[in-house]
Amino acid sequence: MSEGIRPARGEDWARIHPFWAAIVADGESYTYPEGLTSDAARALWMEPPPWRVVVLEEEGRILGSAKMGPNRPGRGDHVATASFMVAAAARGRGVGRRLGEDMIAWARASGYRAIQFNAVVATNEGAVRLWTGLGFRIVGTVPEAFRSRRHGLVGLHLMHLPLA
Amino acid sequence: MSEGIRPARGEDWARIHPFWAAIVADGESYTYPEGLTSDAARALWMEPPPWRVVVLEEEGRILGSAKMGPNRPGRGDHVATASFMVAAAARGRGVGRRLGEDMIAWARASGYRAIQFNAVVATNEGAVRLWTGLGFRIVGTVPEAFRSRRHGLVGLHLMHLPLA
């Protein structure tokens, strides 16, 4: 049995999709379209190389997933980006932090000069605290760029971590 | 003969592609991959709705093109974004400004609440001056996020204009 963080396999999607869809439907952290079919969502998350997709598995359960790759093509492909999804049942156990630390290590080992998160919802305090704690700074906040289900129009932070 | 700014037609691409490719190859303003085939570049620029693609035509020549649409899907689709390409031979004649003003009017009429440009190269002084002059402000600058051919690693501005 594989434990810990490992590359996602095609057959993992059936166990990623339930929490992925629940997080999108919750409407507090991602701008993915709502109501996607499982196949459409898979195409957005399980991207082929140069993207890397991982899961964190413990005791046979997938607790979270992350995807990571170049933030831009061409003359911007020296900056990495990533997205993270943690199952609601696994919150508060450091899953996001472990996936984040793994992503930073991967980006550094892959030769990226920096990591950029383009759209961290300002009211997503757990995420802001996590990334700030790992050394990211808020480069700027786009006002009212996210329609939060509970909070209405809120800002999106652009967060940045130099690696070089 | 059609003059001024109008929606791009499929057959326009053959006249857009030469300056589009020259601007990308120049390496000072866009992170599109270099060396794309014409078909691959067309797929990135001539996107279907909800994207809108326009050209500015004068005296039978296409002087510039712009594409515009939602900056993000889902809960971010109330913010528009756009990209602009002006043929080198037509610089300094206000083509970018006319395309920019048209884009702002379109975004306003379409009900977008704001416009966001995600990656304005900090050394692209003409672009920074143009957008600042049209009311955009720099929300933040991602350091060293663009590999300029002439200047090396330079910043990318995130620029924002509220419409609501």
What labels describe this entry?
seven-stranded mixed sheet; 4 helices; alpha+beta; 164 residues; homodimer
Briefly, what is this?
The first copy, chain A, is α+β, with helices and mostly antiparallel strands and 164 residues long.
Note down, in words, how this protein is organized:
2 copies of one chain form a homodimer. Chain A has 164 residues and is an alpha+beta fold. Chain A has a single domain, classed as Gcn5-related N-acetyltransferase (GNAT) (Aminopeptidase, 3-Layer(aba) Sandwich). Chain A is 28% helix and 37% strand. Chain A has 4 helices and 7 strands, in the order βααβββαβαββ. Chain A has a 7-stranded mixed beta sheet with strand order 1-2-3-4-5-7-6. In chain A, strand 3 and strand 4 form a beta hairpin. Chain A is globular and about 40 Å long. The N and C termini of chain A lie far apart (36 Å). The relative contact order of chain A is 0.15. At the A-B interface, strand 5, strand 6 and strand 7 of A face strand 5, strand 6 and strand 7 of B.
Strands, helices and their partners?
2 copies of one chain form a homodimer.
Chain A: E1 4-7, H1 13-26, H2 38-45, E2 52-58, E3 61-70, E4 79-86, H3 95-109, E5 114-121, H4 125-133, E6 137-148, E7 152-162
Parallel strand pairs in A: 4-5
Antiparallel strand pairs in A: 1-2, 2-3, 3-4, 5-7, 6-7
